[in-house]
Design brief:
The structure holds two protein chains of two kinds.
Chain A (H helix, E strand, L loop, with lengths): L1 E2 L10 H11 L7 H10 L15 H14 L4 E5 L7 H18 L2 E5 L3 H7 L8
Parallel strand pairs in A: 1-2, 2-3
Helix pairs in contact in A: 2-3
Chain B lengths: L5 H14 L5 H27 L3 H22 L5 H26 L7 H32 L1 H9 L4 H26 L7 H8 L4 H30 L24
Helix pairs in contact in B: 1-2, 3-4, 3-5, 4-5, 4-9, 5-7, 5-9, 7-9, 8-9
Classes of the chains: A mainly alpha, B mainly alpha.
Chain lengths: 129, 259
């Protein structure tokens, strides 16, 4: 699964987005506790009833990542997942992501321009000149 | 000769367009001239055909009409891939011809090769199917271009292409049916349609004209719906490959690829 830089969310609330993405993947609707868990994992303290139209760029990115992570893919490709996040939130998200991926055996391939972040979290680092 | 006076109206429109510097003035006169020549030619051909009816000639005329409608639709949508274009051509031909045969034999209860029935009715059904399909393809292509972010995201999330593209097919079908449905709503109150007006002016009983008009409108609606739905449902499957990667018409960059 690839979570690109471009964030796409449907109209409606965060919960509506979870439901729509799950319906499109023909999966049973996630429960509110599950949605909350993945939002917290992505350092997103918003209510699941928050309308996506009013979210900031960083919030949209975290909601989108929460939806992606909730599918628990075997391999997750992330393209600049922290580009719209401030330093603290980015670190919190990366810590949670590393723990979650280790727990569930998810291989994460992450592209980032933030050398500090990659140095702290990457198991293997490939630098492109 | 009094019919020539109608061309004064065309000159008037041309004059207004010229005064307002609307760019399509030349096209207006070209369209007027082409329509006149085509109608004169059709008049000669039909007069001869009705005087010498033969199944082969009727089939030949229908084939010519079908070929022209397919060429017109595909000419307006050159970005369609080869398989999609084949689907469009097959569906337009099959639905148009089948509904013509059904209307002539089952509703009008005439010989399926009688040119006096088959050619005008087939023309109406084919023409409307052509317009409906053009509108639907335009709406479908515009949606494909406008919803690239959605398509890319959903492909990346592993959503099946059918689920990503089917809402676009639905919207295209709605767009195609709208003109027919609107004309059905206003018919008889706002305007009397061309076929009915023609029959009444030619001296037919209005009751007969109404029967024909009502049934032809339903046949048009069904033909447009069947043509568009079958062409899009069959054709949109050509937009993705075995790896579930969607290939947008006229776009080298794939939705599954990010910059």
């Amino acid at each position: 699964m690839l979570a690109g830089q471009e964030v796409f969310l449907c109209d409606g609330s965060i919960a509506d987005n979870f439901r729509q993405f799950y319906a499109l993947r023909e999966l049973p609707e996630p429960n509110p506790t599950g949605m909350r868990r993945f939002l917290d994992l992505c350092a997103c303290p918003l209510s699941t009833d928050s309308p996506c139209g009013t979210l900031s760029g960083g919030e949209r990115q975290r909601v989108f990542l929460a939806v992606c992570l909730s599918f628990v893919p075997r391999v997750l490709l992330l393209d600049e997942p922290t580009s719209a996040l401030d330093g603290d939130t980015a670190r919190r998200f990366m810590n949670n992501l590393r723990d979650f991926a280790a727990q569930h055996g998810i291989s994460v391939i992450l592209v980032s321009h933030d050398r500090g972040l990659t140095a702290s979290f990457a198991d293997n680092l490939l630098e492109l000149a | 000769m009094p019919f020539l006076l109608a061309y004064v109206l065309l000159l008037m429109v041309g004059g207004i367009m010229k005064a307002c510097r609307i760019a399509q003035t030349r096209l207006l006169f070209m369209a007027g001239l082409r329509m006149t020549l085509q109608l004169i030619l059709a008049g000669f051909v039909l007069t001869w055909l009705f005087a010498h009816p033969h199944p082969l000639l009727t089939v030949g005329y229908l084939a010519l009409m079908t070929g022209f409608t397919i060429r017109t639709v595909l000419g307006r949508h050159p970005q369609l891939n080869r398989r999609f274009a084949c689907c469009v051509a097959c569906c337009l031909a099959c639905c148009g011809l089948l509904s013509t045969v059904f209307f002539v034999t089952c509703i009008a209860r005439q010989n399926a090769f009688d040119p006096r029935y088959v050619i005008p009715l087939g023309g109406m059904l084919m023409g409307n199917a052509m317009t409906g399909l053009s509108l639907a393809l335009k709406s479908f292509e515009t949606a494909l271009q406008g919803q690239q972010a959605r398509i890319r995201t959903l492909v990346n999330l592993g959503v099946r292409p059918q689920h990503i593209l089917f809402p676009l097919v639905r919207t295209a079908l709605e767009t195609a049916l709208l003109p027919t449905l609107n004309s059905m709503l206003g018919m008889g109150i706002v305007f009397l349609p061309g076929m009915m007006t023609g029959q009444i002016l030619a001296g037919a009983d209005p009751a007969t004209a109404i029967l024909y008009q009502g049934s032809i409108m339903m046949a048009i609606c069904a033909t447009v719906c069947l043509t568009v739905l079958s062409a899009l449902l069959w054709g949109y499957r050509s937009l993705w490959d075995a790896d579930m990667c969607i290939h947008l018409p006229g776009n080298d960059r794939q939705p599954g690829q990010n910059a």
